[in-house]
């Protein structure tokens, strides 16, 4: 066994410890964005698997829970804001480790870019309902890509400033938004559950009702994407007062998301037929509000969706900047990402750069119409990326704690069996869906409906990641590629936030 790398002789760049369990829950729940997932996803998943959404959400939760326990175990052993990038690098090698970090970051930046326009559209729709249809001679049209992107970028700028000036204030802001979102969501879904005309059917919970293996795989990957974001709590494990708080926050948020998703999926299907769900697609939640209530109450789901979009973008900015901080700390990325603000103790420069990249992508999507289709397809392909990095991290847990097989059946099951099976399920689903994309088309076309194009996007992200890994190894000569380990977070000076309540 190789010896551990020597501790740094001087303290490195340090994040500020100021967060607790509640903050971890707020970050994880905001990043998962249950309201946005429900609002946009329920109609989308219905177009793929019909009325079997409750079955798939329940099934998808099982491997995700197994992966969450792997994250918690790895976090106890080695708390590091690079999480999967560090853990996979140590257990499976630096190349898959770097790739884990890379695909996580690229997926998050794409999500921020895509969601900025959605955020602007929801804000403008709310402004229209409030009677504001133009400003300074500019029509506030929620269907205009240019105007919605401009509004979204203004909001993105404000969220970046909040993330820079202190992660604790950002999480408190997110928590306030979550309380309103969930109150509205529970009220309207509860109303639909009581008054809906469609009887609850056991077939909704039967995955064998799904027509084909490809449809099942597409639905499962989309259902896993519903839960994506709970791991954001682990990105601030160097800023929590106790690293265990990050794990507790992530697991609490994950179980809360399961309850919300199952409750909402049954409520939607009680109130709406399959044809209504498919027809309304990403507008299913606002449609539910209009169907159940008169104005101004019918607008509340739209406001909740607006708050959810805002919170999810901010919750994505925070872990993305910290993942890059961890990679830069190991010299696998450039030095700009480790610049810590002297007053706020946050990776300010990195947060601003992430916002800028997302903003540029969003603007290019307006300027180049075909890029809009590419961006939409990229968001759809994020499901494959999520399956890849969740799967690799879970397998890394099984490999790292393989000695637990000597510690009894229970410990072997929890440390090796559950993570390994969960990771292999997601990797298998991703591989099967990738194969389905390759065989569903006989030519390449820049269209979200073209299988070859859909496969090419995650493939291009992975190839770019391998290229960046080569730069890190051969140009930057990062020690990460020699030791397979990230910088030990515990060897750094991590000051307590004396102003924290």
Automatic annotation (TrEMBL):
Pfam families cross-referenced by the UniProt entry: AA_permease_2 (PF13520)
Transmembrane segments: 21-49, 55-74, 95-127, 147-168, 175-194, 214-234, 246-268, 302-325, 346-368, 374-401, 413-435, 455-475
Keyword tags: Cell membrane, Membrane, Transmembrane, Transmembrane helix
Record keyword DNA-binding present: no
Bilayer topology annotation: Multi-pass membrane protein
Coiled-coil intervals, chain numbering: none
Annotated compartments: Cell membrane
Protein name: APC family permease
Species this protein is from: Streptomyces doebereineriae
Lineage: Bacteria, Bacillati, Actinomycetota, Actinomycetes, Kitasatosporales
């Amino acid at each position: 066994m190789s010896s551990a790398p020597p501790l740094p002789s001087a303290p490195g760049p340090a994040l500020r410890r100021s967060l607790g369990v509640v903050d971890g829950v707020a970050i994880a729940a905001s990043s998962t964005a249950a309201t946005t997932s429900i609002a946009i996803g329920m109609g989308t998943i219905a177009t793929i698997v019909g009325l079997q959404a409750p079955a798939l959400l329940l099934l998808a939760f099982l491997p995700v829970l197994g992966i969450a326990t792997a994250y918690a175990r790895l976090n106890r052993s080695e708390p590091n804001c690079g999480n999967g990038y560090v853990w996979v690098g140590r257990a499976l090698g630096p190349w898959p480790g770097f790739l884990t970090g890379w695909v996580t970051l690229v997926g998050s930046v794409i999500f921020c870019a895509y969601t900025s326009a959605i955020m602007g559209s929801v804000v403008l729709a709310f402004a229209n309902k409030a009677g504001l249809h133009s400003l300074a001679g500019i029509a506030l049209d929620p269907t205009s890509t240019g105007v919605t992107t401009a509004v979204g970028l203004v909001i993105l700028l404000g969220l970046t400033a909040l993330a820079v000036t202190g992660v604790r204030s950002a999480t408190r802001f997110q928590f306030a938004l979550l309380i309103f979102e969930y109150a509205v969501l529970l009220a309207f879904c509860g109303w639909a559950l009581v008054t809906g005309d469609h009887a609850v059917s056991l077939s909704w919970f039967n995955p064998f009702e799904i027509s084909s293996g490809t449809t099942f795989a597409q639905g499962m990957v989309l259902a896993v994407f519903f839960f994506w974001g709970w791991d954001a709590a682990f990105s601030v494990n160097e800023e929590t007062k106790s690293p265990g708080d990050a794990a507790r926050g992530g697991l609490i948020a994950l179980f809360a998301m399961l309850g919300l998703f199952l409750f909402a999926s049954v409520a939607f299907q009680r109130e709406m037929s399959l044809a209504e769900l498919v027809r309304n697609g990403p507008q299913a939640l606002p449609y539910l509000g209009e169907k159940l209530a008169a104005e101004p109450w019918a607008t509340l789901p739209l406001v909740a969706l607006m708050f959810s979009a805002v919170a999810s973008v901010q919750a994505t900015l925070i872990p993305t900047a910290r993942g890059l901080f961890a990679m830069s700390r190991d010299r696998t990325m450039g030095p700009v990402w480790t610049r810590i603000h002297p007053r706020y103790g946050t990776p300010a420069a990195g947060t601003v750069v992430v916002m800028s990249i997302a903003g540029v992508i969003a603007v290019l999507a307006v300027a180049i119409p075909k890029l809009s289709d590419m961006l939409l397809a990229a968001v759809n392909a994020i499901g494959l990326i999520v399956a890849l990095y969740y799967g690799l991290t879970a397998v890394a847990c099984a490999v790292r704690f393989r000695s637990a097989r000597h510690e009894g059946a229970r410990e072997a099951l929890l440390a090796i069996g559950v993570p390994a099976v969960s990771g292999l399920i997601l990797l298998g689903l991703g591989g099967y869906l990738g194969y389905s994309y390759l065989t569903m088309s006989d030519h390449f076309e820049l269209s979200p409906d073209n299988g070859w194009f859909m496969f090419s996007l995650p493939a291009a992200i992975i190839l770019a990641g391998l290229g960046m890994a080569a730069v890190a190894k051969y140009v930057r000569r990062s020690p990460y590629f020699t030791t397979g380990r990230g910088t030990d977070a515990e060897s750094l000076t991590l000051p307590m936030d004396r102003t924290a309540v």
